[in-house]
Amino acid sequence: MPKRHFSLKRALAISFAALLLASLAIVGAGVAWLRMPLSLPADKVDFVIDEGTTMRGIARQVREAGIAVPPEVLIAYARVTGTERRIKAGGYEVARGDSLWTLLNRLARGDVTQREIRFIEGWNFRQIRAALRRHPDVRQTLDGLDDATVTAKIGASTSHPEGLFFPDTYLFAVGSSDIDILRRAYRAQQRELAEIWAQRDPDLPLGSPYEVLILASIIEKETGMEADRRRIAGVFVNRLRVGMPLQTDPTVIYGLGEVFDGNLRRRDLRADTPWNTYTRRGLPPTPISNPGRASLLAAVQPEKHKYLYFVSRGDGTSAFSETLDSHNRYVARYQLRGLQPPPSMQTEAVQP
């Protein structure tokens, strides 16, 4: 009897040892499998995890991206390693040679891939929408939405989107939506505008930050020369003070919209739109572009002088005048090449 008991104990010990060895072998195989390179359909594969996605949803997105990991396996390893509770939303990239262990750690760290998009100073909203639409890593949600709907989605108080987006380079995770990027650019412009409004000259004839935005958008389109920016701002401020029309071509072009063919004609200057500053006095009702910081600063801190006119020299700089006669001579020199300006150009602005 004691001998049989000893044999039973020995058999149990052997069975336990065998089970332990088998378990260790399975664990070892599992660890080895975790370290093996994943099978990918390309050298790099991107996928996006949206906020609030479940582990099963994450496993499905990984599988749909072409990464050869059975969803049940990914879920099991995420739970065993504790990764499931730490996965962060965002866009991720898996490269050839990466293992499942690498992927799980990347998800837990929130090591999202970054892309960039640049909004240029002076772009209008139509150009910004086109840039977002062209970018292969931006998730498209704006198709079919009009401008008023877009501005409502970003939380703007105006239904007109022009000028609301700060020109800058924005980094984003692959799969970020176009509306999220616009919302960031809108908030950046609001911060810039608030800061710059606090630095305005005390006698500035502008009644609100939005009017600063309008004037800055015109300055942005009139010159790219840093040396002329504040001086051109001063011309417009002088005209506003004495009630002269701003008479700036970029506002007319903006009012023409997509029908503008690149050639501004005399009849265009007479075609009345809300943005035609030849036919209407004061500022136009909205910005005409998205101005950068330099133009915003110029609008609130214009150069103090007596100039009421300026004309492009054709090299990026401008010639400034206090009188219409002097201005017309500059027009003849730089734009008409010595020809007498036509009557409409000779009287294009009314002396105060």
UniProtKB/TrEMBL annotation:
Name this polypeptide is given: Endolytic murein transglycosylase
InterPro entries: MLTG-like (IPR003770)
Reaction equations catalysed: a peptidoglycan chain = a peptidoglycan chain with N-acetyl-1,6-anhydromuramyl-[peptide] at the reducing end + a peptidoglycan chain with N-acetylglucosamine at the non-reducing end
Key words, A-Z: Cell inner membrane, Cell membrane, Cell wall biogenesis/degradation, Lyase, Membrane, Transmembrane, Transmembrane helix
Superkingdom as given in the UniProt entry: Bacteria
Entry annotated with the keyword Metal-binding: no
Similarity comment: Belongs to the transglycosylase MltG family.
Sites marked Important for catalytic activity: 222
Enzyme class: lyase
NCBIfam families listed in its UniProt record: endolytic transglycosylase MltG
One Pfam family hit: YceG
EC number, as in UniProt: 4.2.2.29
Gene expressing this chain: mltG
Biological role stated in the UniProt entry: Functions as a peptidoglycan terminase that cleaves nascent peptidoglycan strands endolytically to terminate their elongation.
